[in-house]
Amino acid sequence: MFKIVVEKECGFFRRSDMQNNVAMDSKDEALTKALEIVNTMNSEFCAKHSFALEEVENTFLIKMVQLRNSSC
Fold first, then answer.
1. Higher model confidence: residue 49 or residue 38?
2. HSE (CB half, 13 Å, CA atoms) of 9?
3. Alpha carbon distance 65, 62 (integer Å)
4. Would the pTM of this model clear 0.70, i.e. be above it?
5. Are 38 and 53 in contact (CB under 8 A)?
6. DSSP for the chain?
7. What CA–CA distances, in Å, run from 55 to 14, 47, 60, 69?
8. Cα–Cα distance for residue pair 36/60, rounded to 1 Å
9. C-alpha 51: how far from chain center
10. Cα 72 from Cα 57, distance rounded (Å)
């Protein structure tokens, strides 16, 4: 089982229809979905945050890597 976890949920994430702590059977499927989420978050969210993907054992962790001065 492979999980996709958003480490810090910004306001845009909380207001979106995206889900946190998603589990999938296939590593490839989980990686594809995690990359899709990161790309969406980086292109469609507030642009005050940047997000990156990190693989930790069986978890794809989506981390906030940059927080600018204003809040969402």
1. 38
2. 12
3. 9
4. yes
5. yes
6. -EEEEESS--HHHHHSS--SSEEES-HHHHHHHHHHHHHHHHHHS-SSEEEEEEEETTEEEEEEEEE-SS--
7. 22, 23, 5, 28
8. 12
9. 7
10. 31
Who contacts 62 (Cβ-Cβ below 8 Å, separation ≥6)? 4, 5, 6, 7, 34, 37, 38, 41, 51, 52, 53, 54
Cβ proximity of 71 and 48 under 8 Å: yes
58 close to 64: Cβ distance less than 8 angstroms: no
The token pair at 10 is 């910004």
60 — phi, psi (to 5°)? -100, 110
8 Å CB contact between 68 and 48: yes
pLDDT at 16 over 60: yes
